[in-house]
Amino acid sequence: MAQATIGDSEFDRDTAVTPREDEDGVYDAHLSAGWTIIHAVNGGYLLALLGRTLGQALPHADPFSVTAHYLTPSAPGPAVVRTQRVRTGRTLSTGQASLFQYDENGAEIERIRVLASYGDLDALPDDVRTTAKPPAIPPIEHCLGPSDAPAPIPGSSAITERLMLKLDPTTLGWAVGAPSGKGEMRGWFGLADGRDPDPYSLLLAVDALPPTAFEMGLTGWTPTVELTAHIRCRPAPGPLRVSITTRNLAGGFLEEDAEVWDSADRLVAQSRQLARALRTP
Amino acid sequence: MAQATIGDSEFDRDTAVTPREDEDGVYDAHLSAGWTIIHAVNGGYLLALLGRTLGQALPHADPFSVTAHYLTPSAPGPAVVRTQRVRTGRTLSTGQASLFQYDENGAEIERIRVLASYGDLDALPDDVRTTAKPPAIPPIEHCLGPSDAPAPIPGSSAITERLMLKLDPTTLGWAVGAPSGKGEMRGWFGLADGRDPDPYSLLLAVDALPPTAFEMGLTGWTPTVELTAHIRCRPAPGPLRVSITTRNLAGGFLEEDAEVWDSADRLVAQSRQLARALRTP
Questions:
Q1: Eight-class DSSP state of B171
Q2: Would you say A99 and A79 are in contact if contact means Cβ atoms under 8 Å apart?
């Protein structure tokens, strides 16, 4: 199979939306069953779809800061995105988007609300004074994915077929019943069809690894309450390195901080989410 | 002067809003000139005012995750806050708020838009499994505030009279012309009238220290594009310790990560903002 390209890949097709001709800023969407974990639609896929929609609705195409509040669980199938231009500026524009699905009577139910500021990543100066260092992750051939024994990722999930996800074995103890107790998850990330990363796929990357809670010995679901992603640089072609850290699990909530580094060793995205640590039933 | 209390302090009076009897969810406000830095109204004060307003508008009173996009500069004077209930849940409710001021023709100009989820901090279980450690800050008597030579904080700002801000001398090099080059700012934080912290004053605390950019040798303004704060615990009485870190200054933007610790050594708030690093004129 030829390598997929940006604009012509499964990810691009599954995040495409169609503007309604009779309603300005309203887009019809279809949530693909191909990006589900167990039965839940992956939050990063939904963020990418909404981020791409806002990129069409706003005068600036690149997400700089995107915040999503997850209101009700999304399901594969038809959806509508209603966008609003909040402010249009020279270098930054701010917009809002809501994803709705339909109940049995056809009434709209809001799934996710997003508030975001967009700009032009290619217009940024080249100055870099970061003190951040790329995460220490073994070479990709020494990392493990769903297809690799002895540490298959539990749960049959359609999304695993669409991702190139190779996790650092030192953060995979949970998969063999021996969680490290540390709130860390690291690995290599790409799209299975070889499509290179772009700012929208970075929104998928920040929420695509297994939850750090697994390495902390929790087995329950950790649904996202809110996730904010900062896209800091257009990613270079090639696989990404993603590092997720949790420092504070308290009161039944935890934060997950994600860093995404590209093949040019640039910190291309930072994100933080607040998630609930639900008791195992 | 007797110590001010929660509900009866300058901070409480200056963040109070009045619901309009004829418009549900709409509140009149007055932005106090007492919380300005040079001529700009402090972003943390504005976040606290909006956070408190949403606490009145939503069925839950405590901010859990609050995101603000700063659209246009606020000025002291009259303002109006328009709120919307996005979702009401059993443990969490989500709401939106916009702060408007008026142009010379009386037309509303949006200053800030907030999207937030609220809950009940007192209803959270006591489990704490944090690996985070409190920042290493010298005893308060060894830290320096605006009134302490040899490191007064430049710029005459009304807000400095309302804060108890004592900064770690190791992050004050910028004030004596010798910035460390590190993106770090640490100190003790409280309200000058002795009012104890609560979830709303934590929203002030996360954006009240001098910008980390000063210690990185930048002298220009670093306006906030977006700030997200997670309130993780109701703070115990007494002074707070605030630590702010910047790891990635690139492309004319930087993130500022803040941690707030209370007198009981609990991590009570985490925040991250994306700010622009403007060239000095």
A1: G
A2: yes
Q: Report the run of H or E that residue B212 belongs to, with start and end.
A: helix B212-215
The answer to whether the CB atoms of A226 and B67 lie below 8 A apart is yes
> Does pTM top 0.90 for this prediction?
yes
Read off the tokens for B262: 């209370």
CATH number of B10-122: 2.40.160.210
3-state SS, residue A36:
strand
- Spatial contact of A61 and A83, defined as CB atoms under 8 Å apart: no
Closest CA to B270 of A273, A214, A278, A223: A273
Domain spans, chain A: 10-122, 140-276
Q: Is A236 on the interface with B (CB under 8 A)?
A: no
Distance from CA of B1 to the nearest CA of A (A): 37
| Helix intervals (H) in A152-273 | 159-162, 199-205, 212-215
Nearest to B247 among A65, A117, A130 (CB): A130
Distance from CA of B95 to the nearest CA of A (A): 10
Query: H/E element holding A46?
Result: helix A43-57
Q: Which residue, among B33, B261, B50, has the nearest Cα to B161 in the 3D structure?
A: B33
Cα separations (Å) of A6 from A43, A196, B140?
21, 6, 54
CA quadruple B230, B231, B233, B236: dihedral sign: positive
Tell which residue, B37, B100, B35, B46, has the closest CA to residue B68.
B46
Tell me how far apart the alpha carbons of residues A246 and B99 are, in angstroms, rounded to a whole number. 33
* Local structure of residue B46 (DSSP, 8 states): H
Nearest residue of chain A to residue B93 (CA atoms): A71
Q: Burial, B91: exposed, middle or buried (Cβ in 10 Å; 0-12, 13-18, 19+)?
A: middle
Q: Are B238 and B262 in contact (CB under 8 A)?
A: yes
- For the record, the structure tokens of A237 come out as 């072609």
In CATH, what is the architecture of B140-276?
Beta Barrel (2.40)
- Yes or no: say if B79 and B112 are a contact pair by the CB < 8 Å rule: no
Token representation of residue B67: 């995101």
Q: Over the Cα atoms of chain B, what is R_g?
A: 18
Phi, psi values for residue A62, rounded to 5°: -100, 125
The closest alpha carbon to B132, from A134, A182, A18, A48, belongs to: A182
pLDDT tens profile A202-253: 999 999 999 999 999 998 889 999 999 999 999 999 999 999 999 999 999 9
How far apart CA B130 and CA B180 sit, in angstroms, is 30
A281, pLDDT greater than 50: no
pLDDT of residue A68: 98
Q: Is A131 helix (H, G, I), strand (E, B) or coil?
A: coil
Judge whether A10-122 and A140-276 match in fold: yes
State residue B59's pLDDT score.
98
B63-78 pLDDT tens trace = 999 999 999 999 999 9
A 243-262 near B (Cβ less than 8 A): 247-253, 255
d(CA B215, CA B158): 22
